[in-house]
Design brief:
257 residues; alpha+beta; paralog of FGE (formylglycine-generating enzyme); 16% helix
C-alpha cells in the first residue's frame, strides 16, 4: 500500500520514461462547484455537498486504450497485465478498446510514463459535470445505450456491451469538456484513497482537495459496462481494492496545462 501511495505522489513530478506516449487531451477550466449530491437516490457517501475549487487541468479525452497501453509495454515502461479473462482487453486485441484488468498501481505507472498522473476525485467530477449541477455528463436525460455502455436497467446483467466494454467513443454521451465515456464503458481509477467521509470535507481542503493519505481501497468513478444505470450519475462513488484487476475498471490520465 505504501508503494502504491509513493507512485501516486511521484507521478506528479516523474520524468517521462523514453519517448512520450501521445494522448488526446481536453482542458477543463478551473472552477468552484458543488461537489456531491442531495438528490433522493444519492448514496450516503455522496454527501453532504460542499463547495470545492479545482484549478485548471487537462484530462484524457478517452479512457486509456489497449493500443496505448501495449505501446507502453513494448517500450518497457509498463508491465504486461495479468489477464485471464476473455473480457480483458489485453486478450481481446482490439487497440481501440479501453484498457481494463489493470491494478491501481499499473494504471498510475502508465500515467507516470507519460509524465502525467491519475486525476483526483474532485478533478474527475468537475470533468464529468462541469461547474453546474447535472445528473450525467451529457445532461439530465436518462441513460441509454446511445449515451453510455452500461446495463440496460437496474437489475439485469444485460449490457449495452454484449461481452465486455466497447471501443472508446462508441457512444455520444460526452461531458461539457468534450471527454468521452466518463459514464459507462469502464469505471475509472482515480488517485484518491477511498473514505466514505471524504465528500463531507471533514478532513480535506476545499481547494484542489485530495483523499486521505492512507487507505485499503481506492475510489473508482463513472460506472462500467456491467454497472446499473444509477452508477452512471456524475456524483456516484465506487471503490475497489488496490489489487483489483476487473474487466469493468480502467482509467485515464490527467495533468496541468
Amino acid at each position: 500500500m505504501r508503494r502504491a501511495l509513493a507512485l501516486l505522489l511521484a507521478a506528479r513530478s516523474a520524468p517521462v520514461l523514453g519517448a512520450p506516449i501521445e494522448g488526446d487531451e481536453v482542458t477543463v477550466q478551473g472552477a468552484t462547484f458543488r461537489m456531491g449530491s442531495v438528490e433522493r437516490r444519492a448514496a450516503p457517501n455522496e454527501g453532504p455537498v460542499r463547495d470545492v475549487t479545482v484549478s485548471t487541468f487537462t484530462i484524457d479525452r478517452t479512457e486509456v486504450t489497449l493500443g496505448a497501453y501495449r505501446a507502453c509495454v513494448e517500450r518497457g515502461a509498463c508491465a504486461p497485465p495479468v489477464s485471464d479473462s476473455r473480457r480483458c482487453s489485453w486478450l481481446r486485441g482490439d487497440p481501440r478498446l479501453p484498457m481494463n484488468c489493470v491494478s491501481h498501481e499499473e494504471a498510475a505507472r502508465f500515467c507516470a510514463a507519460r509524465g502525467r498522473r491519475l486525476p483526483t476525485e474532485a478533478e474527475w467530477e468537475l470533468a464529468a459535470r462541469g461547474p453546474r449541477a447535472r445528473l450525467y455528463p451529457w445532461g439530465d436525460e436518462p441513460p441509454d445505450c446511445a449515451r453510455a455502455v452500461s446495463t440496460k436497467g437496474e437489475k439485469t446483467a444485460d449490457s449495452c456491451g454484449s461481452d465486455g466494454p466497447l471501443p472508446v467513443s462508441t457512444t455520444r454521451g460526452q461531458s461539457p469538456s468534450g471527454a468521452a465515456d466518463l459514464a459507462g464503458n469502464v469505471a475509472e481509477w482515480v488517485a484518491d484513497f477511498y473514505d466514505h467521509r471524504h465528500a463531507t470535507g471533514a478532513s480535506t481542503p476545499d481547494v484542489d482537495p485530495h483523499g486521505p493519505d492512507t487507505g485499503s481501497s481506492f475510489v473508482v468513478r463513472g460506472g462500467g459496462w456491467l454497472s446499473p444505470r444509477s452508477h452512471l450519475r456524475v456524483t456516484a462513488r465506487g471503490w475497489a481494492s488496490a489489487a483489483e484487476r476487473g474487466s469493468g475498471v480502467g482509467f485515464r490520465c490527467a495533468g496541468r496545462p
